[in-house]
Specification:
There is one protein chain. By secondary structure, this protein is an alpha+beta fold. 29% of the residues lie in helices and 20% in strands. The chain contains 16 helices and 22 strands. A 6-stranded mixed sheet has the order 15-19-14-18-16-17. The protein has a 5-stranded antiparallel sheet with strand order 1-5-6-8-7. Strands 2-11-10-9 form a 4-stranded mixed sheet, with no helix packed on it. α3 (103-117) packs across α4 (119-125), α8 (287-296) packs antiparallel against α10 and α14 packs antiparallel against α15 (457-474).
Length: 514
């Protein structure tokens, strides 16, 4: 076996605290919108991951360079042929109800529960031949073929550990324990007052000596963005996770005395804003029209004015923060003349093009209006169709749009978070998270498949560079921004963001100066 990374090696590369952490205290954190559930094995939307990431854990965490770090696994080995991954589990881990956590829980979580419930992980598990537990502290994953990004799937939102003794043999979706989630994490579920708050308390039996440091955490539900900003100003909340307030409030809030902010903690997700363009019918079915959209948009203006500089103009379907990105592609600058040339080549006849904004606040509405203005300036007839969140989901899932705003997470590797949007095998009505555009290219399908299983990073980079060039030329969607969501917090809150998923698992390390 070839040992890759172990706990002792990993911690040499981390910045260790220079002062002793104070213990005790409470944090109030905004969560918005209110999660539909806290059962992370069943629901993986953003608000659920924010709260449940402190209740549930996986085998690994990831630093801001996406290197794996210990979590429920204290060390791991990868065989020379990259087909066998062996994890050694931490000692003394218990579930929140006091039952011991063992390798059998890992096997059940991965091979039974999550194969059934977790659509995104299921795609990665297609490469797994078996998951076994030679003993209570050892788990072995045998792969059918090398799968380069496999070491990146052991994150709480991607592969949460589920208690076998509670869920085995039950109807997972209707198990009563879903209402009172039980994990191994640093905080335990205590109470959920719907529409008001979710209360977690310190796990006194956590396996890391002395951690967590806080006594309790309240996740506050405040539906209105302006009210969330006021709650922070008034000291009612201590942390505004990324996206909690409108962008134009960020500067004012971060300039307050005793307030800090960071853009770190989104490296694993690398949120990529884009607009689906319906490749099946209407004006957007024509590649020249789609290129016209790219040249018509002033994305630098959007970055600087609408997003207040919190972002980078996207040049590819792969984020520059994600492994295997290349900038060797067509660069669609703001060029109205080129946009008009492509409109003429497309034979555009003035038919109405419907834009579906993302109903996540005024920032997104302003963005849709900016796109409308840019397109009208080059001669496109545009209609903005406003919806609520449910309507936005439904219209995308039913392909009832021409251009539709969204943003998706990339999960550190194109095989995990990018390919899903372009594979022809991932076209299916009923979901806003698959190949919603309806793009089909057999060569792209083949390249994604080859890149996912290529033996070396160099081979993967070569193939992913080719697939990015092809996609940027086909322009099945309009890539917009690599968006940034600054986390705003009181400066007396320390070590809040210590991993690539930020606040979602940061409360294990967080403490408050007393």
């Amino acid at each position: 076996m070839k040992k890759t990374l172990t706990a002792s090696i990993l911690y040499l590369g981390l910045a260790l605290p220079t002062v002793a952490q104070d213990t005790g205290g409470r944090l109030d954190i905004v969560v918005q919108p209110e999660p539909p559930s806290l059962m992370l094995g069943l629901v993986q939307n953003g608000p659920t991951q924010l709260v449940a990431g402190d209740i549930y854990e996986s085998l690994l965490r990831y630093d801001t360079d996406l290197n794996p770090m210990p979590s429920l696994a204290k060390s791991w080995e990868i065989s020379d042929d990259a087909l066998t991954y062996t994890f050694t589990l931490q000692d003394g881990v218990t579930w929140h109800d006091g039952e011991p956590f063992t390798a059998e829980d890992v096997v059940f979580s991965v091979d039974t529960f999550l194969r059934e419930t977790h659509a995104r992980l299921r795609v990665s598990l297609e490469h797994v031949e078996s998951v076994t537990a030679p003993d209570d502290h050892t788990v072995v994953f045998k792969l059918k073929n090398p799968f380069g990004p496999f070491i990146g799937v052991f994150e709480a939102g991607t592969m949460p550990m589920i208690p076998k003794h509670i869920y085995e043999g039950t109807d997972f979706a209707n198990n009563e324990a879903n209402n009172t989630p039980i994990g191994t994490g640093p905080y335990k579920f205590n109470e959920w007052e719907k529409g008001s708050y979710i209360h977690l308390v310190k796990n006194e039996d956590y396996y890391l000596d002395g951690q967590p440091y806080l006594d309790e955490v309240f996740y506050r539900v405040i539906p209105d963005a302006a009210s969330r900003a006021v709650a922070f100003e008034n000291g009612e909340v201590d942390v505004l996770p990324g996206g909690s307030v409108e962008n134009w409030d960020v500067k004012r809030l971060t300039e307050m005395e005793g307030v800090c902010s960071t853009g770190q903690g989104w490296e694993y997700f690398a949120p990529h804003a884009m607009a689906w363009m319906n490749n099946r019918e209407g004006a957007t079915a024509n590649k020249d029209f789609r290129k016209a959209v790219m040249y018509a948009m002033d994305r630098e203006f959007v970055k600087d004015v609408i997003w207040n500089g919190f972002g980078t103009v996207a040049t590819s379907p792969v984020s520059s923060k994600t492994n295997f990105y290349t900038d060797d592609t067509i660069m669609y600058d703001h060029n109205p003349d080129k946009a008009r040339e492509h409109l003429e080549a497309a034979g555009y006849d003035g038919e109405a093009v419907r834009i579906l904004p993302l109903p996540y606040g005024e920032t997104w509405q302003r963005w849709a209006e900016a796109m409308k203005q840019n397109l009208e300036e080059v001669g496109v007839n545009v209609e903005v169709v406003a919806t609520d969140v449910a309507g936005w989901n439904q219209k995308q899932a039913e392909w009832d749009f021409d251009i539709a705003f969204t943003y998706l997470y990339q999960y550190g590797d194109p095989a995990l978070g990018v390919a899903r949007s372009y594979l022809s095998s991932n076209i299916a009505k009923g979901s806003p998270w698959n190949n919603v555009a309806g793009y089909e290219n057999p060569e792209v399908d083949e390249m994604f498949a080859e890149a996912a299983t290529a033996a070396t990073p160099e081979e993967r980079q070569e193939i992913y560079s080719k697939v990015q060039k092809q996609l940027v030329d086909d322009v099945p969607v309009a890539w917009l921004l690599e968006i940034e969501f600054p986390t705003i917090y009181r400066c007396d809150v320390q070590d809040l963001v210590t991993t690539a998923i930020g606040v979602n698992d940061g409360l294990r390390d967080a403490w408050v100066e007393q």
